[in-house]
Design brief:
2 domains, 4 strands, 8 helices, ferrous iron transmembrane transporter activity, 10% strand
Length: 299
């Protein structure tokens, strides 16, 4: 029986196909008008294709099960993908700055047509709809690569809107250099979005803890499901892609048997996995003389 393709992989393939379609539409609009700003906007779509490819590779790697080489899984592959996306965005921004510089000192008139504007608007609508879907689906699947791809597309939507308004101003005022200024502004927007993506991904690679709200929920679940134990301390969490790692020390009475302590651990793990999908839990059981009288006191 043929294995079903994971949803995240199908979404990543969809991003790649949509990126190609949007690039074709924006490239057509730039060719019709001769606008540097629209050309820069189309160049950003090349980045979208590159990011979609990176996201596709990342989600396929992240879906692989843990093995002897990587016993904790491939989840962090998605963070590397987001870093690569940020680098591509930076390269695109530099290319746009070059075109803006040349266009400012050697301006050329643009030929604005209703068809070119309509094509550019249509491409932007496609990006907006797909970006919203990517962010929602990425959060649901806990996929940093898909969320990063969606957020980048949102910056593309806003920059395209600004470019279209600016190009209309160029046509009305006849100031050709404004086209180059708009292109430079698009480059700045792209560069900023790349920095945010790289920053967020580096934090993920450094084993960032879960947010305070989720940590409070984890502590509540441990306290509510550790009946028979004395306390839990040294609780640590870290995130790697969609996986969440939780480890802590559980203090039990010295007279408690290993089997009894194991039953308590099983109960805690079951409740934590219900509340935190894709969690990997490690519990270190200690006798009562190891109690620190801090952390979570089991009632």
């Amino acid at each position: 029986m043929k294995a079903e393709i994971p949803l995240t992989t199908r979404i990543a393939v969809g991003s790649l196909l949509i990126g190609v379609l949007v690039l074709a539409l924006k490239g057509l609009a730039a060719w019709w008008t001769g606008s540097i700003a629209l050309y820069s906007d189309a160049l950003e779509s090349v980045v979208n294709i590159a990011t979609a490819l990176a996201a596709l590779v990342a989600v396929r790697l992240a879906a692989r099960p843990a093995d002897a080489t990587l016993p904790y899984g491939y989840h962090k592959a998605e963070y590397f993908s987001a870093v690569i996306i940020g680098v591509f965005i930076g390269v695109a921004a530099l290319l746009i700055f070059r075109e803006a510089y040349l266009g400012y000192f050697h301006p050329r008139p643009i030929e604005l047509t209703p068809a070119a504007i309509a094509v550019s608007i249509f491409a932007t609508v496609i990006n907006a709809v797909w970006a919203g879907y990517l962010v929602r689906a990425g959060r649901k699947a806990r996929s940093p690569a898909l969320v990063a791809d969606g957020r980048h597309l949102f910056t593309d939507v806003f920059s395209t809107g600004a470019v279209l308004l600016g190009v209309l101003l160029v046509a009305v005022t006849g100031w050709a250099r404004l086209d180059a200024v708009l292109a430079a502004l698009v480059g700045c927007t792209i560069l900023w979005s790349g920095w945010l993506l790289v920053r967020q991904s580096v934090i993920g690679l450094m084993d960032v803890a879960v947010d305070p709200g989720q940590l409070a929920r984890i502590r509540e679940l441990i306290a509510a499901n550790a009946e028979g134990a004395i306390e839990a301390h040294d609780i640590r969490t870290r995130q790697a892609g969609k996986a969440t790692f939780i480890d802590f020390h559980l203090v039990v009475p010295g007279t408690m048997s290993v089997a009894e302590a194991h039953v308590i651990c099983d109960g805690i793990e079951h409740k934590l996995r219900e509340a935190v999908p894709d969690s990997q839990i490690t519990i270190h059981v200690e006798p009562e003389n190891k109690a620190k009288h801090s952390g979570i006191v089991v009632l």
